[in-house]
Write a structure and sequence with these properties.
This protein has ten helices and two strands; from the N terminus they run αααααααββααα. The chain is mainly alpha-helical and 225 residues long. It has one domain: Rhomboid-like (Rhomboid-like fold), CATH 1.20.1540.10. A two-stranded antiparallel ribbon has the order 1-2. A hairpin with a 2-residue loop joins β1 and β2. α7 runs antiparallel to α8. The chain is globular, with a radius of gyration of 18 Å. It starts with a helix and ends with a helix. The model has no long low-confidence stretch (mean pLDDT 77).
Length: 225
């Protein structure tokens, strides 16, 4: 429980010391780490699942009025250590690679993906429940991966040939983005019901929308980078 939180906070300390362009990213990661620690403590000493009950998103329109905050708070909850660390590391890699190109836009994409992804999942899930009542749609949605899919898709659409360096590992945005998107889809297909896949599709569509509506400004930045 403590190890991944310490690991993430160390990354934040290095980022904050390195460049003030990371400030918003550091805040996001610290909030995720604190929430995960709180989540684990609550599960240890209180009723199991109480945090998910009040802070996770449930793909049900009637729940919108009961828990309006859950459109955002669900993205700060994670299922296990790997879920948390994996999402945070991917954010660090992409923000580090593109921070000089579109730092502010990436934040808009992340937050819009988080909200739009679950709204899309709710509407499509409601239709599925009408025509396919045997499909389960009444579970909790958690994790930052909808926002992460939005970021990776946006990078793929606009900066496919940018280089990404992770220690001694070097690749291009297009290869890493395709790998991550396919991995997310496969994982959710075999581990979660279709609602998770639809939410991730919302992140993909958000990235596509931002790409086509801001394409000229991104071309200018590519030329001046």
């Amino acid at each position: 429980m403590i190890a991944p939180v310490i690991f993430i906070l160390l990354i934040c300390a290095l980022l904050y010391k390195n460049d003030d362009k990371y400030n918003m990213l550091v805040i996001l990661i610290v909030l995720n780490a604190i929430m995960y620690l709180f989540q684990c403590l609550m599960h240890t000493y209180f009723e199991n699942g109480i945090v998910f009950k009040y802070l996770s998103y449930q793909p049900n329109i009637y729940r919108w009025f009961e828990k309006p905050w859950s459109f955002i708070t669900y993205s700060f909850l994670h299922g296990d250590n790997g879920h948390l660390v994996g999402n945070m590391l991917i954010l660090v890699v992409y923000f580090d690679s593109l921070k000089n190109v579109c730092n502010k836009v990436m934040w808009k994409i992340y937050l819009t993906s988080v909200v739009f992804g679950v709204i899309l999942a709710t509407f499509i899930g409601s239709l599925y429940s009408i025509y396919f009542p045997y499909i389960e749609t009444s579970y909790y949605v958690i994790g930052a991966s909808v926002g992460v899919v939005g970021i990776t898709s946006f990078a793929l659409f606009n900066f496919p040939d940018y280089k990404i360096e992770i220690s001694i590992f070097k690749t291009k945005v297009k290869y890493l983005s395709v790998f991550l998107i396919v991995t997310y889809i496969l994982y959710i297909t075999f581990h979660v019901s279709m609602i998770g896949n639809i939410a991730h599709m919302g992140g993909f569509l958000t990235a596509w929308y931002f790409s086509i509506t801001n394409r000229d400004s991104f071309k200018l930045k590519k030329a001046t980078y």
